[in-house]
Amino acid sequence: MSGGDGGGGGDGSYWPPGSDGSIGPSRPTCPGQETTLTGTVFAPNGVDPVPGASVFIPQNVPELFPPEVRCEVCGSLGGSMNLWYTTSAFDGSFKLDGVCPGKRPLVFQNGRFRRFITVDVPAKTTLALPASDTRLPKRNQELSPTDAIPKIAVATGDYDKMECVLRKLGLEDKAFDRYEDAKVLTTSPALPTFGSLVGDLNKMKTYNIIFVNCTSNTFEDELKKATVRQNIAAYMKAGGRFYVTDWSYDWIEQVEAFSPFIDFEPGASGAAPEAQNAAALGADGLKIQATIKDPSMEKWLGLVKASTGSTIPIEHFLTDWVIMSTIGKDVKLWVEGPIKSRTGSINGTRPLTVTFNFENCGKILYTSYHTEGRDDELLSFLPKPYPSYCGTGAWSPQDRILEYLIFDIANCVKPIE
């Protein structure tokens, strides 16, 4: 949940281009009448704070987002056309200073998550906005024609259920599309296959984010097709986002353009892809204290009571989970921890959650662990219907990490720190 769509630094209002006579809109002035707007940007569930979100009063009502992915680097989504601008702090709070009174359009935005409201700004005061106004939408056009969420595809899995995290986040079930990628826990009625998505570049480009759950290598034979690998790389180059967990790592490793970023076990292998499933070596049942490597994530996880200081408990490592060996200099390390392989021959501290940019437009996340899985269904080989298999359980620590990174990967692209 870092970065923003325009400028500013989260600690005050942004003075946009044009205020000093340069190219851009002229910011209204109202000496002695200025008001401060305050509040907290929340996830669609209205509870979880969103740091790094853009909060701004635009010169004009924002246009609808285009119907396909675009290269959206930070600063490219209208920042120069905003009259007042700031970003939310780690706890989602914001303070927009110097706003002149009158009816003002106000936008809360994190990538293609966008809420649009109109505020009747009084003079010479501080106006605290309620959470009902400042949460991001649950679906497109929820309360305003310009309310928006990213278009999301989820490849289902036998061991992971990212779609359930999206529900906890507050998105409505019809706000994202599911594709079948499970082998055992298949969905009834039948879903379109994940193979049908990755085989169609034009269809892929209609989605801003594609989540690939950990599963039983169901459609990974598709990766033997050069056209499929080229489709994935072209989707990312166009501005797509790819969110991949555990056994599904080959959707990164087998794409020649991506494999140099992460070197998976066993051992150093250079930039070339290794054999499929070669890194599935992890020991079952690990329960570790992992280290959070990003200060902003650390503060946010502490805020939602998922961690203590710089450490966070992570479990639900299944047999033969995928181990990363090393990461490149242009890869962002979020979480690392002490691990061991099934045979005990590989151990020590390893990266567990990473992201990297591709061609300065796309974003890719890989994590070796995932959400709490579908174990009870696997024991009986009787899949539950969606969304009943999501249950009503509380957030796990690993859920919270992945929640944070949903907003980070959805946001505009900025250089890896």
Spatial sequence of strands, sheet with the most strands: 9-8-10-11-18-17-16-13-14
List the quaternary state of the chains.
single chain
- Based on the coordinates given, report the CATH architecture of the largest domain: 3-Layer(aba) Sandwich
Count the E strands.
Answer: 18
CATH topology assignment of the largest domain? Rossmann fold
Describe the secondary structure blueprint for this structure.
Elements: E1 35-40, E2 54-58, E3 82-87, E4 93-99, E5 102-110, E6 113-121, E7 126-128, H1 131-134, E8 152-155, H2 162-169, E9 176-179, H3 194-198, H4 201-204, E10 209-212, H5 226-237, E11 241-245, H6 250-253, E12 262-264, E13 288-292, H7 295-303, E14 311-314, E15 324-327, E16 331-340, E17 347-358, E18 362-367, H8 375-380, H9 397-410
Parallel strand pairs: 1-7, 8-9, 8-10, 10-11, 11-18
Antiparallel strand pairs: 1-4, 2-3, 2-5, 5-6, 12-15, 13-14, 13-16, 16-17, 17-18
Task: Give a description of the structure.
- With 417 residues, this protein is α/β, with parallel strands linked by helices.
- It has 2 domains: 1-149, Immunoglobulin-like (Sandwich); 152-410, Rossmann fold, CATH 3.40.50.880.
- It is built from 9 helices and 18 strands.
- It has helices at residues 131-134, 162-169, 194-198, 201-204, 226-237, 250-253, 295-303, 375-380, 397-410, and strands at 35-40, 54-58, 82-87, 93-99, 102-110, 113-121, 126-128, 152-155, 176-179, 209-212, 241-245, 262-264, 288-292, 311-314, 324-327, 331-340, 347-358, 362-367.
- It has a 9-stranded mixed beta sheet with strand order 9-8-10-11-18-17-16-13-14. A 4-stranded antiparallel beta sheet has the order 3-2-5-6.
- Mean pLDDT is 91; it is low at 6-23.
